[in-house]
Write a structure and sequence with these properties.
By secondary structure, the chain is of the alpha+beta class. The chain is 31% helix and 11% strand. It is built from one helix and two strands. It has one helix at residues 12-34; strands at 2-5, 8-11. Strands 1-2 form a two-stranded antiparallel ribbon. A hairpin with a 2-residue loop joins strand 1 (2-5) and strand 2. The chain is elongated, with a radius of gyration of 22 Å.
Amino acid sequence: MFLCYKGNYISFPDVCKIFIDIKEDLISTWENKILRGLDLRVHYDKLADDLTTKDMGYCSKNPQDITLVPSVRD
């Protein structure tokens, strides 16, 4: 299947490659130019909400529910 874009024919695999290249460029820019090589990661498996709580005013960000990790600066 070919698409005509501004007089140029492109195929679906070409469109997929464009998105892959953009993703790889964004990751490289984020890791190398913004974070400057720092290995910062978010461990999403540790983030959870208690969906069974029906208490009035419940918030997943209540201070007693948050475990603080000491920062490098402390």
